[in-house]
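Usage

Read records sequentially. Each one opens with the input sequence:
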Amino acid sequence: MLASVEEEVGLPLPGPNATGDELFKLGMLYSTGQGGAPLDFIAAHMLFNLAAMRGSNEGKVYRKELSQEMGAEDVAEAQRAAREWLAQG
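and closes with the structure output:
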């Protein structure tokens, strides 16, 4: 998901030391399709989830709002992607 976006669009992947604020800002790009990012709710949810885990209150709020607009399968995919990102760090 995000690896292919990095190749296609040139957006950087968040590093393992990314702060909650950095992850939140990247999630905002994917949730709105701005800043060169494709509109991708799964990637946005993953990033908001990671941001929330790193202390971002905004990440918690936006993750909850976004999950209400997503199907259960997409939320599960975003959660899997977040676990994979954490395992790589």
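Summary fields computed downstream for this record:
- The longest helix spans residues 72-88.
- The chain has a mean pLDDT of 88.
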